[in-house]
Structures are given as C-alpha cells and as structure tokens.
Amino acid sequence: MTMKITELQTQNFHGFAAKELSLDPRFTLLVGNNASGKTSLLEALAVAMGGFLLGFPGIQGRSIGQEEVRRVVHVFDGLADLQPQYPAVVAARGQVADHAVSWRRGLYGPRGRTTRREAVELVALAEELRKAVAGGEQRPLPVLAYYGTQRLWRQKRELADMGPKIPGRLAGYRDCLDPASNHKHLTAWLRRQALIDAQRGQTSLHAHTIERVVLTFLEGARSFRYDLAREELVLEMDDGPLFTFDMLSDGYRNMLAMVADIAWRATVLNPFFGQEAPQRTTGLVLIDEIDLHLHPKWQRRVVGDLRTAFPNLQFVATTHSPFIIQSLWEGSLYNLDPDYKATLSHANASPEDIIEWIQGVPLPQRSQRRQEMVVAAEAYYRLLERIPAAPETELAALKQRLDELAEPFADDPAFVAFLRMERLAAEGRRP
Fold first, then answer.
1. Half-sphere exposure of 316 (CA within 13 A, CB side)
2. What are the tens digits of pLDDT across the range 296-320?
3. In this structure, are 278 and 322 located in the same domain?
4. Strand 313-318 relative to strand 27-31: parallel, antiparallel, unpaired?
5. Does any domain span residue 403?
6. pLDDT of residue 227
7. Measured between alpha carbons, how far is 41 from 33 in angstroms, rounded to an integer?
8. Residue 79 has pLDDT above 90, yes or no
9. Range of the structural domain that residue 351 is part of
10. Rounded distance, CA 273 to CA 127, Å?
11. Could you tell me whether strands 283-287 and 16-22 are parallel, antiparallel, or unpaired per DSSP bridges?
12. What is the pTM of this model?
C-alpha cells in the first residue's frame, strides 16, 4: 500500500497564519533559522498522518493541541491581551493506496477537539485496511514515524511497563508519532525474538533483516543483536570490541536506534515481505535535526544511506548542517528564511558557499574554488580590455590565454558562458 503526502497547508498552526508546502515524493529537506518553523511543519505533518491512524482504534494518533493554536498579542494602554486564533487547521493532499485523497483536521474553539469529519475518506480507507488485516489478508501497511530532537532521551521504566498490548502487525504503530519515543519497543521485540531463537535453535529471519539494515549504516560493525546474558542490545565491531547500547557514542546510538526502529516497524507491519520488508514498505518518516550528533563525514552520506536502505519511504527532515544540504542530490530543499532567494545549486556545492548563499551567514571564508574563479575572471577581463586595440599578431596569443583561463571551470557552464559572451562583445568592438 502506498502512502505519501504531496501537499501540506496550515492555518493558525503554531507561528504560521497560513503556510503551504509541496513535498518531494522521496526526500524533502527543511532549512532555515531557529524559530523559522521547521519543527512546526513536521508537527503539522504528524497531525495529517494522525488522520490515517483514526482508522485503527487503540492506536495513539496525533491531534492539534490547544497550545499549538497561533496567538496574537493586542496591546491596550500597555496591557498585553494574548488571543488564540481559530480555527487552527492542517490540510493535506496525497496518495493512499491507489487513491488521490485530500483531507483536513481542525480545531475550532477552546473547548473543541480536533475534527475528523473532513477526513472521512482517509479514515474509511484506513478502516478498510484494518479489517483486511484482521481477516488475515496480506495487505501492506505503511510505516509512519516521527523522530524528534528528544529521541535520545532515555526513559527509566522497565520494559514490562509498556502500556496496553497492541496485537500483531499493528504493534508497528505503537508510539509512531511520538517525537520523544525511544528504542524500548524495539528492545522488547528483539529480546522476545532472541528467546524464541534460543528455544528453536535457529536465527529469526526478521531479526536478521533488522540487523542487516543496521550494519549498512554503521561502518566497522559486524553484528547487532539482543544479548540474553547481558540483557541489553549490543553492537559488535569487526576489530573485536563489543558495546552495549548505552556504551555507544550519541552519534552511534542516535543512528542505530532510528534506523533499527524504521526497519523494525517495516518488518512488524509487513512480515510477509520477509527480508525485503525495509525495501518494499512505503510510508512517511519525519526526522527533526537529521544531523543530530553526527560527524560531518556521516552527515555527508546519511541522506543517501536512508534512501538506499528504505527506497519506498518518503522522508521529510530538518537540518542546520551544510553537509546535509550539499548531499541532497535529488529531492526538494525548502528554505523557510523569508529573505531567501535561490542563487546557488545546493547539490555538491562547497560548505562555505552553502553557508553564505543558502543559510545566509554573512562573509564566511570563501571557498578555494570561488577564489580561483574570481582571480581567473579578473585576469580574463584585463585581457579583454586589450582585445579591441591589439594588433593581429597579438590577437591569437590573447585568445589562447583566454581559453586557458576558462578551461579549469568547464564544469560550470554558466560561468564559462558568461566569459564567452564578454569575449564576443570585446571582439565586436575591434575596428
């Protein structure tokens, strides 16, 4: 089953009076200053995704909270009057199964609840899917997940204290839209699989599938499993060391927990896909600050790794990292800074240029390549000034030198074309 969101609209949600966002079907990256609304848009998407979960009773979804209603301050004789602005609305358009669906969810007053009456088509599709699953049909379920900046906060409760049990495949939706959720459900599931494996004397295909995905992200890792003796998740490295989850660095724990959780949800929701569940499952994953605790080398490849490991998932992420931005070869970059004007292609641009032209940091150190382009252009113009009055005996040497100056930048067609036009203009001024 396909589920993707292509357009999002909000009204009076968080700090936005009104906002529209078009989403890339594979990867959308939101950038902007602090307080520009990146996380607010992820929250709005979570509300939209929560509409689908209304078709699954017992699954905690996501509604619009009263604290999320936009507020306006009116001042009367120095006294501030803070007033919420209703209605607060989240609307979306997308593809669910083979249907193009539009839906809205709204909060219309201080005593109201988030509506579902304008999401009836979406809810009906979800209910039909739930009934098919209850009947044992092998109908694919989409992964829905939200990983917030709180995703490394460890909860101290015992694994047994996990709330009401969610049956079977639908356990893949447990806490899926809670941005602060952690790896406790994954740990409990892997522990159970390890006990079953020990009893049967064989390795679970589904546990092995999750391990395989994790190892593609973690360089130098040999195995990832639940260790019954230590009663913890462990990561074993190629060169011998074995680390429990809590011993790992924040970067490793962050990436391991998130990737394993996505793979776990795909596997639990669609067990009949076998070891291909992570690759074949569709759905939508939200990641706030995708660069959280990652070394720049890892930041440079995390987008590509996610798209390779989960090729049918749609990702929407936020970042402050120029290394994440430069790695976005295909996909949509959405800049929330109000004064931003697209003047630079982000794909593989230098971090210095991204910081200046996309992230708006004034006067950073120029990249070496841009400095070389400036020097070459200055020399080029000095030679152009000589062309109109140069004798024929010198003209050929001038043209050869101009070609030499432009040659190193042949991979920048706009720069080379500009120099060529200036050269033709100079030649046109010859008597």
1. 28
2. 888 999 999 999 999 999 999 999 9
3. yes
4. parallel
5. yes
6. 92
7. 14
8. no
9. 3-182+248-357
10. 22
11. unpaired
12. 0.82
Separation CA 348–CA 217 (nearest Å) = 21
In 122-250, which ranges are E strands?
Answer: 143-147, 221-227, 232-237, 242-244
Where residue 344 falls among pLDDT bands split at 50, 70, 90? low
Q: Where are the beta strands (DSSP E) in 119-204?
A: 143-147
What CATH number is attached to the domain comprising 36?
3.40.50
**Whether residues 257 and 308 fall in one domain:** yes
pLDDT score, position 39: 96
Cβ atoms 289, 9 nearer than 8 A: no
Is 70 exceeded by the pLDDT of residue 139?
A: yes
Query: Which two tokens mark 312?
Result: 């049918």
- Could you tell me if 349 and 44 are in contact, meaning their C-beta atoms sit under 8 angstroms apart? no
Same domain for 47 and 168, yes or no, is yes
Write the pLDDT tens digit of every residue in 314-336: 999 999 999 999 888 767 899 99
- What pLDDT score was predicted for residue 289? 94
**Alpha-carbon distance 353 to 342, whole Å?**
12
**Residue 59 counted as domain residue:** yes
Q: Distances from the Cα of 363 to the Cαs of 182, 342, 352, in angstroms?
A: 40, 18, 10
Q: What is the mean pLDDT of the chain?
A: 87
- Report which residue type is found at 20: E
Residue located via tokens 């070891």:
275
Taking the C-alpha atoms of residue 423 and residue 425, their distance in angstroms, rounded to an integer, is: 5
Last residue in a domain, options 357, 386, 417: 357
What's the number of CA atoms in the CB half-sphere (13 Å) around residue 271? 13
The string of DSSP codes covering 259-326 is HHHHHHHHHHH-GGGGGGHHHH--EEEEESSTTTT--HHHHHHHHHHHHHHSTTEEEEEE---HHHHH
The pair of three-digit structure tokens given for residue 14, joined into one six-digit string: 């968080």
Q: Which two tokens stand for residue 76?
A: 């009367």
Report yes or no: 264 and 235 within 8 Å, Cβ to Cβ.
no
Q: Which of 127, 177, 184 is nearest to 153 (CA)?
A: 184
**352-366 pLDDT tens trace:** 778 877 887 765 556
How many angstroms separate the CA atoms of 145 and 151, rounded?
12
